Every structure is written in C-alpha cells, then in structure tokens.
Amino acid sequence: MSAAVKVVIVGGFGVGKTTMVGSVSEIRPLTTEETMTRAGVGIDDLAGVEGKTETTVAMDFGRISLNDRLVLYLFGTPGQERFWFLWDGLFEGALGAVVLIDTRRLEVGFDVIGRLEERAVPFVVAVNAFPDAPVHPMAELRAAMDLPDSVPMIDCDARDRGSSRDTLLTLVRYLRSLIAVPPETP
C-alpha cells in the first residue's frame, strides 16, 4: 500500500517549473503551455527570459514514485502574476512546495515565498542552474531572501531527472522533520 502526497512546484515566470515536472515525472506530464502572444506585451516581464515563447496558463501535472510506499503528485503553478489566482486551487491539499529560484532574477522569488509563508505551506528553495546565471554562495542567497536556517536551500538542475528527484527528496525529508515527534525523556 502506498501513500500519495500532493506537492506544488512554484516560482516566478521562466524559472523552470514545467521543466522540473517534465524531467522527473514517470508519466507523460500534463502541461498547459500556450504560445505567448502580443496580448502579454507590457503585462508580462520578460527581463532575463526574452527568448521564452511559451508559458503555463493553468498548471503542469506529473507523478513520481519515490519508493514502493510513497508517490508524489506534482503540480506546477503558472509563474506569471496574472495567473496567480489559480494558486488557491492548486495549493488545496498540498503538503509542501518546492520554490525554484533563478539567480539572474532573484527578486522574482520574493513574492512567491511571501505567498507560501502567508499560507503556512512548508517549502524548500531550489536554486535552478542556468548556464549564464551568476553563482552566489548559499549563505548570501539565504540572507538576500531572508530565509530562516530551518528552510532547506539546495542547488538544482531542473533539466536533470536525478537533480529534480533529489530536490523532491529534500522536501520529503523536511516535511518529515516537521512532523517528527521527539521521544519523551524519562
């Protein structure tokens, strides 16, 4: 018998949420990618992702069995703020989240983390690897994002199945640590 856990992959526009769901899912992922049109000009901030031609307009969905007892159902959120109203439904029943961060546009993650904190959703932060992204020590990134030491922060390459799986395992371990009951002392 296995347990199913709902996990949400969040982050700003173009940080790699669809890529992560696609790289790690053991089923063909459901995506709602649509071609970007002129309707988004002046609304969507393409700074740092000028070559992006498609965007998630509702969600991505995938599944990964971490072992014979634990299955994660992955829901990738849309990154553009104009679609954030969909987050309410996507977070319903979620036990935790992965926040993908792009160091070329670190400020995009601030609002995302704030929304998770408001909802009291436990999360880990994964710094997604982009070839042209500046590399900063984790301590500096943690300080810049004002993250408490208790929130795990790791490097990730959303294109790589193993790296994405390791990110999800970090989230699962973190969630377990939050519910672990310390043994009673005599």
Describe the structure.
With 186 residues, this protein is of the alpha/beta class. The chain has a single domain (3-39, 55-180), classed as P-loop containing nucleotide triphosphate hydrolases (Rossmann fold). 28% of the residues lie in helices and 25% in strands. The chain contains 5 helices and 8 strands. It has helices spanning 17-24, 87-91, 108-119, 138-145, 161-179; strands at 3-11, 33-35, 54-56, 60-67, 70-76, 96-101, 123-128, 153-156. The strands form 2 sheets. Strands 4-5-1-6-7-8 form a 6-stranded mixed sheet. The chain has a two-stranded antiparallel ribbon with strand order 2-3. A hairpin with a 2-residue loop joins β4 (60-67) and β5 (70-76). α1 packs across α5 (161-179). The radius of gyration is 16 Å and the shape is globular. The N and C termini lie far apart (35 Å). The mean pLDDT is 82.
